Each structure stands twice: as structure tokens, then as C-alpha cells.
Amino acid sequence: RDSPVGRPPHRPPPGPRATGAMAGMEAVLAIFGFLQAQGPLGVAYYGAFLTLWTFCCLPTTPLEVAAGFSFPTAPAVAASVFGKTVGSLAAFAVGRAFFAPLIARRKGAGAAANGAAAGGAAPSRRSMAARFEHFARPLQAALELRPLQTIVMIRASPAPIALKNFGLALSPAKAVTPSAFAAVTLVVNVPYSIAWSLTGSSASSLHDAVNGDGAHVAVAGRLTFLMALFAGLALFARACKEHLDAARKSVPRGAGRGDSRRAARRAAPDAHAD
Predict the structure, then answer these.
(1) Mind listing the pLDDT tens digit for each residue in 116-168?
(2) Mean pLDDT of 54-72
(3) What is the DSSP string of the chain?
(4) Could you give the CA distance from residue 224 to residue 10 in angstroms, rounded to a whole number?
(5) Residue 203 has pLDDT above 80, yes or no
(6) Which of 154, 155, 146 lies closest to 175 in space, CA to CA?
(7) Is the dihedral of CA 210, 215, 219, 220 positive or negative?
(8) What's the pLDDT band for 269 if we cut at 50, 70, 90?
(9) pLDDT over 80 at 220, yes or no
(10) What is the pLDDT of residue 100?
């Protein structure tokens, strides 16, 4: 039967994902409401919290937007850059000090198992270290040939933050030095933190303008600048991803480390084309 006239249509209750997202948003708003009430100390607390958040490889964009909405733009950008950079450096240090030796030991154990299988023993399942090496070998070859350029492409590409931090920590130490990682991380973090902080600040300014408390021309100019900034960052991230995909595809399946270097060297002119 048709529902009576005037009765609102039945809407199913929100699913678990929607409920979780709403609860997470409410928690973020509550946290930033508390931080905003702390005055200048709230910015410092936010920077420290973002450091731990980044170390845990969690998405930082919602926090940066909320910081831009809650704090003045300059302190929000400074705290975001500080938190993301220090958190990434901490993750890199832990990965280099603890995870890299673990991967090396597992790699050696996998090589020994493969040797035993070649001598007549039953072949064992492919180890985690072997799978990681198969994925990262082309990128490691590119890192050895063009370390700074490859680190920039990895940091700017839309890759998981765990790969950007812990993955680079597992790369060759001569190619990815702590100083190079720190410098590239800082340089790449600055424009993205500016963009996300301005997004939150623009939302606050737009709210004020709608209520008659802000200058419409200033808000329009900020939104125009923000769209241009996002367009430039999106194009740069897309180019970085294409270069990384080309570097990985240039190495044939089963190629050795020397083959990876030669393939990456042949792909070098394409990487410098733009």
C-alpha cells in the first residue's frame, strides 16, 4: 500500500560505517573544542598529538582541516608541519633501527630455505621479506640512482603513509639517508599543510561571511587561491605516481638487483622529461 499523504518516506538506519564516521567526527570536534579553549597551549597540544597520530600512520587530513578551522592559519600550519615531520622522522627512525634488521634476518632465512628446496627439500611458502623485496626492488634501484628525486616522488604520491615512512626506512641506507628523508619530508609537508589549513580557515571565513561577519571579497580570493593550490598539488601527485608506476613496470618479473639498476637507468631520461 501507498503510504499516507504527508508521511515522510521510511529511511533505513545508517550502516556501521556511517555510524562510525559520525562518531569519529564528533570525537574530533570535541577534541578540537577542548584544544581551542586552551588558547595558545592548544596549538602546542595539537602539534604533539599530530606527532603521535602520524607515527601511527593514521590519516592526517581531517586533523589539519580541523586545526585550520579552530586556530589562526599561521599557527595551524606551523603545528601541522611540525607534527607531521617529527612523526614521520620518528617512524623512519624506528623502522631503520628495528624493522630493517628484522627484514634482513627474514630475508636470509628465506634464502636458506630456498637453497634447501633446490637441494631436494620441499619448497617453502614465499616469505614476507621476499614479497616485500619483490615489491620494493624497482623502487630501491631508482633510489640508488636518483635518491632525492625518488624520495620526493614517493612522499608526494598518493601512497599509504606507512610506505612513505616505514617503507623508506627499509630502503638502502646509502640511498635514503636520515638527512635526505628529513629535508624532503619537510619540503613536501609544507604545501600540503598550507592547503589543508587554508581549507579549514576558509570554511570558518565562509561561515562568517554568510552570517554577515566577514568580507566577501577576501573569502572569494582565498577560495580561488585554494583551488589553484589544490590543482597544482593534484597534478604534481599524479605525475609522481605515474613515474613510480613506470619505474616498477620497467623491471621484468624475476629480475635480479643488477637488472633492476639497468632498467631504472634506462628509464632515467623519461623520469627527467618534465
Answers:
(1) 555 554 444 444 445 555 556 667 777 777 888 888 888 888 888 888 898 88
(2) 91
(3) -PPPTTPPPP-PPP-HHHHHHHHHHHHHHHHHHHHHHTTHHHHHHHHHHHHHHHHTT---HHHHHHHHHHS-HHHHHHHHHHHHHHHHHHHHHHIIIIIHHHHHHHHHHHHHHHHHHHTTSPPPPPPHHHHHHHHHHHHHHHHHHSHHHHHHHHHHSS--HHIIIIIHHTS-TTTS-HHHHHHHHHHHHHHHHHHHHHHHHHHHHHHHHHTT-S-HHHHHHHHHHHHHHHHHHHHHHHHHHHHHHHHHHTSPTT--HHHHHHHHHHTHHHHT--
(4) 41
(5) no
(6) 146
(7) positive
(8) very low
(9) no
(10) 79
Burial 63-74 (b: 16+ CB within 10 A, else e): bbbbbbbbbebe
Q: What are the cell numbers at 36?
A: 581551542
Q: What is the pLDDT of residue 87?
A: 97
- Dig out the grid coordinates for 232 from the structure: 597544482
Sign, CA dihedral 116-118-123-129, equals: positive
